Amino acid sequence: MATEVPIQTKAQFRYSLVLDYNHQEAQKPKSHLDISKGETLPLSSFDMGGITGSVLLFLFSLISLTDDQHAFTIVASDPEGDPMTFVLSGPNAGYFRVVENTGAVYVRRPLDRESTDRMDFEVTVSDPYNSANPRTITILIGDANDNKPLFDSPSYDKSVPENTAVGTSLFKVTAHDDDFGAARVVKYSIDEVTPNAGASLFTINEINGEVKLNGPLNYTGLSTYYQLKIAATDGGGECYGPFVTHKSFTFSFISVVDVADLDPVFTGTPYIGKVNENSPLGHSVFQVTARDQDIQVNDRMIYSIESSTPDGLFQIAGDTGIISVKSEIDREVTGDIATLTVKATEANPNIHGVQASVTTNVQINIIDKNDNTPKFYKCDDIADKLNCVEQTHFTGEILEHSLGSVPINMMVNDSDQMPQTRLSLGGTNKDVFSVEPQLAMSESIVQILVKEPQKLDFEKIQQMVVEVIAVDGKDDTKKATATVTITIKDINDNSPEFPKDTYMLNVTEHSPDGTVIATITADDPDTMDEGNITYRLLPESILMFFDVEPKTGQVYVKNGELLDREARSLFSVTLQARDTGGKPGSTVLEITVTDINDQAPVMNRDSYLEFVKEGSNFELKIEATDADDPSTVNSEILFSIEPSKYSNNFTIDPNTGVLRNKGELDREALDPKMNGRVELNVTATDKGTPPLSTTVPVIINIEDVNDNKPHFENSSYTFSVKEGEKGAHVGSVYAEDLDQTIDFNRISFSIIDGSFGSFIIRSFADERGFRGDITVDPDIELDYESARKQYKLRVLATDLEQEEAEVMVDVSVLDVNDERPEFKPSGPVTVKENTTITEVVGSFEGIDKDGNHSLVYKLESMKCRCNGSLTPCSNFILDPTGKVRLNLEKTLDYEQCDQVIIEAQVEDEFTEKGENNSATTGILVINIEDINDNAPEFIYSDAVFVVVSESASKGTSVAGVTATDRDSAINRQIEFKVTKVQFVNTDNVTSDMRTPFEAVTTQQKDIYVGIIQTTEPLNLELKGKYLVTVTATDSGGLSTSTKLDIFSIDESFKITLEFTRSEAEVIKDKDEITRALTMATKTSVEIVSIKSGTSRASEITIVMAYFVYPNGTALTDSQVTIMLSDLEYHPILAQLGLKNIGPPPVVEVQTDPVKFVLMGMVGGLVIVLAVLTTSLLVHSQKLTSHYSYGRKLKAAKAMNSASMVTSDNQKSGPVVPGTNKYTMEGANPVLNLNYDTAMVLGLDWGELRCGQSQHMIEEEEEDNGPPEYIEPLGAALAQRGKKKTTGNADMSLSNPAFDTTDL
């Protein structure tokens, strides 16, 4: 066995992961390995069985490892010494590369702890003959101090009043650092204050960033503003070696605010205004004005009315000071003058914390108008006019047919000076009355007088209404009307009257006292008699039989015992009524007494007793009489049987009273306890109301006869008995005779056939009937091996009168238990993974040929099929009954094991001799059914996705993702969806946007492919990259998301390639051409068009393509030319037909300078010379911008010569002679980064790179000197030839590559 030894250096960490494949020493595998503790990894396998556990690696600062730099080594051994092959797999395997024959693992892509701090992938080792199971490796990524603090807000501006107290907290700055541990701790400080005189006025808490005022402010004496430069510094930490700290800055602009300290003042005082009474609400009356004496503050004024006399008439606008009418103004109520106290208040508090204010008085004169009309008042006391209230409705009362005035307490008044009011009556009843006075001066009392008393008749009209009309004598349009309701009071001038002269009434004899016979009332139109009429019966002698309620007229029975129809059947009575004035009225009552049923029937006998044998007919006549009048139904009699237990067995004629049996009389049908006695109750009922009845008992004794045979309890009997037992009890038969007397129901048993002398039977009395016990003859021993194993006995049951019954009894001779049990075949069962059911999931079923057995089941073995091989397991429990249940301590996982095979043995506990177990074991196969418990997993791809002008239209595919699901069948079906889209511009600013992409799902075998295509034309003016979040969801709703970078590449980076082959040949070899271009440039090549060109010499094809790095950087024409000039790739590309790179050379016609000389102008000649010079320079540059493929080859050859030359002017790398100096014209507009073809460009521009100096972090705008390679071609070629070392951490932010000039 080997152990893991961590190899640690100052700059970075390395690990060797040793996996021992020693099949000669099987050990239990570990599920987790901590390399930091020096633990070993024991494996349980046979013949390269594979890795079965998982490995945990702590890779601190692994982010410093770049492309093809060593991370750790996987070591395995093979006892046979065969060569081994190492393979990495899983979603995160794309971050690493393993050397297949050595196990050395290299980092392919940068690792960023801020994105993920843990990675899992699987490693598989195999030799040419065996394949090992994969083992999971878990990598924990440590932190490096590679992030600087970032302020949560770009600025912190604040306005502070000059009177702010010292020590007041002004604001709080916050910043965060994405690093871990001490490196993420941020401290704050104030680096600079402008002007410098304010440096001591502010302090900051270095822990929480709270800024406080440390000295007093003065708007006039000191500065009116201050600018604070605030720094945030992290706690520092190692960054792949050196200890570094990072610092960021933000600015705060503090403005000092002036405060108010003077009171306001009114202008234009004193204030006097006027207003007409009855002016409309809101009418402007007057305006007051106040101003703030603090001119610079110039606070807004708020106006209010503090008090007014009278109150509530006026209101003031708080912002303008305009006084307006608030409520109705009546001069007669308010008076001639109103006085207001108006207050002006500053809107904001002054330095003393209060709102300064000032008050002044405003006088408003009220102008009178003639606006009053006559009004009516009700005065309960005419002398007390202060208690009079305005009223328009008055009431009064007067007796019918009377004269005089109607008291209504009315007064009329006109508030105008010297009023003259004319009074008159109106309404339908105005002719019955008159009004006084007809002309009133000022306040006057109004009277209504009766003019026609004969029209005041209560029986015809109870109420009259008149209108009193008051008209202003000076203005007929001003008038008032009051309604007077006069109630006419009634007097007694009518007698009571009954509706009928005679009433015919009936009453039942012997009615209870108080029985109401009828209610009769009289009517009187006089109101005072309503409800006040009294009643009495005449003559006085009738009061011993009947009486009447004096108030209600209700006639009732006074003594019901005296009402006997047989004695007197008719009474004639006078009913008298009197009103309150004693006026009488009367009517006659004829009362007839009716008969009732008061005699019950009488039975002729007190009881009846009869005897009858069962099976015979029974008949008996019941007789009764009734003393009621024979001519009425009261004397008619009906007979009936009262319900009882046996009443339904008999019937009676209701009219004659003859009692008969309904069916055959059977004594055995009766309860034996009754001894044949039946008791009935017969009732005689008359037809009167209510009916009266009498009951008589009838007893019938039913005598027994022998009419039943013995009857066996069962139709047949089956018994068994073991062989060899003399006198053994076989079984019992039961029989019963339903006759109820001992003379007829005693039974004896006998065996009349089938015994062959082997059995005897004895009779015994039993709880119900009799029992016959069958036993083996004491002298006989049954033998199972003889010819008789079955006996059919005929058993006879006989009563004392030889009535008999027969039954068959089957007797089986039993063998002893000596047979082995066997298993019945059982089919496979299915159980879902992860289930926790407690019910039975399957069972074993055994059989035993012995009649008496007890089977128990025992587990022989249990094996699980995991990855195609069977291993012992304990996922299920076998009960002794053969039932198989789930072992809840284990979890069924279809992805680990998909089948369980259980082998069991069955035993017979009742075996008397021989083996008690089965000869062969039973097998139960349990298939584990997959459920959806795994989310989809994306498959890593290093493809680069770009959007160019040719693919920006709607419906164009721009990217793709692939994913798998460990589940099976429908559970592994995946659907892709674009759930979020963001855009990162060239300033590294991220913004959300609507979704211009959609995902189309396809399937290739077990892998699902999501094609990302546009749903609308893309805006090519956007520069940067799209962050597209794609979610993969399986059929059960489990989902996983990944984020794609889709770079927007400008059309200016489109490269033209010229091939000397036909269009069809280029299209055929497109994939091979793409691979060759990718190998030469280390980029992702996006070919957007292939079309035929024009050439006189030969056929050519023009290919348009983009060359893009994984970080979105695109190559220019010149950069592609340099890279394709490499001698390693040139022959391959030449063989594929590549002839030229870039557009054909443009030849410009040179300008003839002679025509400018002919103009004869000196100034024109100067201009012509300048134009010629410029034209020649431009023409020269354009010619040199077209690189022929041969010249690039010459440049490459020159590179070999240049590499041998050294110069003090060179900082590093060879320089090609004759080239121009470096310029920034060719810098990439997307990301201005150094690009080393030996490493993967995946850095985020927003992050700080380790290796960047502190000076560069703080002063990014400063120039840090010339680039490392003065000549860009030399830089590019030198980078391609540079050796990869583990200590190379150069990650500068400048970009001197990808630009060169003509050789």
UniProtKB/TrEMBL annotation:
It comes from the Eukaryota. This is Uncharacterized protein. It comes from Larimichthys crocea (Large yellow croaker).
